[in-house]
Amino acid sequence: MKYVFLMMPAFGHMNPTITVTEELIRRGEEVVYYTTGDFADIVKKVGAEVRVIDPIFNPINFFEKMDPRGDQSFTKPPVHLLTQYMNEARLKAHELIDQVKSEKADVAIYDPMCVWGKEIIQTLGIPAATFYSSFAFHKEAPTLQRWVDQYFLPEEKQILHLFTVAEKLNIVSNPKEFQYDAEFFDHRYAFVGPLISDRQVTTDLLLDNLSKQPVLYISLGTILSNADFYKNCFEAFGDTHWQVILNVGPRTSMKELGSIPENFIIRPFVPQLEVLKHTDVFISHGGMNSIMEALWFGVPTVAIPQSTDQPLVAERLTQLGLGESIQPDQVTVEQLREAVNKVSQSEVVRANLQAIRQSMHEANPVQQTADLLQSLAQQQTVM
């Protein structure tokens, strides 16, 4: 069987699919990705084929080209830019139609936010599955509608219907208990849970030595950069009992940070899965991918949501007693210390984390997802 992945070219969207791809290939299946060059290596590493597409299909590249504000534009791009990107991506998708058709895939897997992938699949009529890297969206779900009303302008709401899609199979990479309004989603939705790789990554962090003192890992993700926030972290946790690993991302200049406390390890890139295995508390931007990884390893988290679905993820984290959240405009040194101390000392949080972690591991998400995709592909050959 042959599978084609058409995903948004962003780490939070690509990463959850990679482990499934690795499992499909282990089972003797053929997998092809259409993605930008910056993701080619991670796809090839697990044995899949790559068709490199124009960098402009990556919304970050498009926004940076059209708007000089750079990294902040992706977190909340103006509506006219978002609309322009979606229109141009859909038009440009037709340049790939013949190539995708020639793959003769049994199943195509696409990201509901990947407008160009959706355009290709609908044009060709390929049997398809959606792959949600965040909450599944249903137009009648009250909590998600509240989120839309709270965080989106009227003109932005007109765009959101494009992300409300349903195929015969819709894979959601979070557990059902984490999904808002789960009762609105029928049998076509598979809440498989986080798709975590067990492959080790080489790092210079000497992780085995970190167990000598409690580890606090801080990361705002791969897109954001916030020197003022990092300086607050220096003040809150510098020269304390914490060994702090701070992921500042590729866009932060070390010169911006000034004097760095001795108990801080700072890197532009951190192998997050490897670090989380040794982490006692995680301060995160609240991206779904990061939160799921923390839950998988049972790490209490303080979420500081920045944009998109992150406020909703952070809210769910606190509702389920799995961590704490701080609004970004309310971050202070005292708030950071208080939140970290609270989650690190809470027996309730520890118990809740243990319960959801056990449930997720028992579900065997990677195996389950590969089974579902193979079943869908086999149904197509019978028809």
Automatic annotation (TrEMBL):
Native organism is Croceifilum oryzae
Q: Where is the Erythromycin biosynthesis protein CIII-like C-terminal domain?
A: 238-361
Gene3D superfamilies per the record?
A: Glycogen Phosphorylase B
Question: So what family is this one in?
Answer: Belongs to the UDP-glycosyltransferase family.
* One Pfam family here: EryCIII-like_C
Q: Which PROSITE patterns match?
A: UDPGT
Spell out the molecular function terms from Gene Ontology.
Answer: hexosyltransferase activity; UDP-glycosyltransferase activity
- Is Glycosyltransferase found in the keyword set? yes
Write the record's keywords in alphabetical order, separated by commas.
Answer: Glycosyltransferase, Transferase
**Protein name per UniProt:** UDP:flavonoid glycosyltransferase YjiC (YdhE family)
